[in-house]
Amino acid sequence: MTVTCCIRYVIDPFQREAFEAYARNWLTIIPACGGDLIGYFMPHEGTTTIALALISFDSLATYEAYRARLKTHTAGAANFATAQRDRFILSEERTFLTPVQP
């Protein structure tokens, strides 16, 4: 069963460009570490502080293996460090979803 991780970010609206660069970095890192990246989504109209990412996995076990690889991936670790240093992410939540089947 496919599991999709939805990451909901609350971002600093005054550092939107920094978050967008952070998200763009994940576009190559996530697939390299085993995630099926559906995409990163920036605020467009309405709220200026909510961004989303959707990443699918074959199972929660696959997700856990992906997370372990992500922590040791050089570019992934650097991207995490940038977010911590620059504090453009105010909070994030992960929700795991499965598709509705007919």
Features:
102 residues, alpha+beta, Alpha-Beta Plaits
Protein described:
The structure is a single chain. The chain is an alpha+beta fold. The chain has helices at 16-32, 60-72, 74-86; strands at residues 3-11, 36-41, 50-57, 89-97. It contains 3 helices and 4 strands; from the N terminus they run βαββααβ. Helix 1 packs antiparallel against helix 3 (74-86). The longest helix has 17 residues, at 16-32.
Describe the global form: globular
Radius of gyration: 14 Å
CATH class: Alpha Beta
End-to-end gap: 14 Å
Number of contiguous helices: 3
Mean pLDDT: 96
Largest beta sheet: what is the strand line-up?
2-3-1-4
**Largest sheet geometry:** 4 strands, antiparallel
The structure class reads: alpha+beta
The CATH architecture name reads 2-Layer Sandwich
| Share of helical residues | 40-55%
Beta fraction: 25-35%
Strand tally is 4
Tell me the count of domains.
1
- Please trace the helix and strand order, writing H or E for each element: EHEEHHE
Layout: helices, strands, pairs:
Blueprint: E1 3-11, H1 16-32, E2 36-41, E3 50-57, H2 60-72, H3 74-86, E4 89-97
Antiparallel strand pairs: 1-3, 1-4, 2-3
Helix pairs in contact: 1-3
Gist of the model:
The chain has 3 helices and 4 strands; from the N terminus they run E-H-E-E-H-H-E. Strands 2-3-1-4 form a 4-stranded antiparallel β-sheet. The radius of gyration is 14 Å and the shape is globular.
